Amino acid sequence: MVRFTAALGIALVVLGVGAYALTSAVSVTALTPAFVGIPLLACAALARPATRRRPALAAALAVALLGALGSSMNAIRIGEAIAGTAQRPAAVWVSAVMFVLLVAYLVLGGRALVRSRATSAG
């Protein structure tokens, strides 16, 4: 799960920097995925030692939850982006990608956290 957290963090940083560059650096909000990816990378680095793994991954899940909630507002407008009626289609697409990645991470990370508790308790 540590590698997956790091990979997700890198993917979000690339997504944010790419969105910022592709939108001609008009708005700093295009970097929002990077602002979520950097703390995920920090959590992955903290989770390397086994003694810190569970709390660091729990923190990563909290960051992912906040990021998913924040990106959901634009991700809901994906229909408008597909129809071509969205005011800021790039923001909608980036938010939708970020939302999907973070929700997938929450599902997988939550399952891994529950599984690790079950094995350490039993």
Provide keyphrases for this structure.
122 residues; 80% helix; mainly alpha; 5 helices
Mean pLDDT: 90
Count of discrete structural domains: 1
| Assembly status | single chain
Order of helices and strands: HHHHH
Globally, the shape reads: elongated
Instruction: Classify the beta-strand content into a percent band.
Output: under 5%
Main sheet makeup: none
What structural class should be given to the helix and strand makeup?
mainly alpha
Helix count, per DSSP? Answer: 5
Structure explained in plain terms:
The chain is mainly α and about 120 residues long. The chain has one domain. Helix content is about 80%, strand content about 0%. It contains five helices and no strands. Helix 2 (about 30-45) runs antiparallel to helix 3.
In a nutshell, what does this entry contain?
By secondary structure, the protein is mainly α. It is 80% helix and 0% strand. This is Secreted protein with PEP-CTERM sorting signal.
Question: How are the SSEs placed, and which strands pair?
Answer:
Elements: H1 2-22, H2 32-46, H3 53-75, H4 78-83, H5 89-121
Helix pairs in contact: 1-2, 1-5, 2-3, 3-5
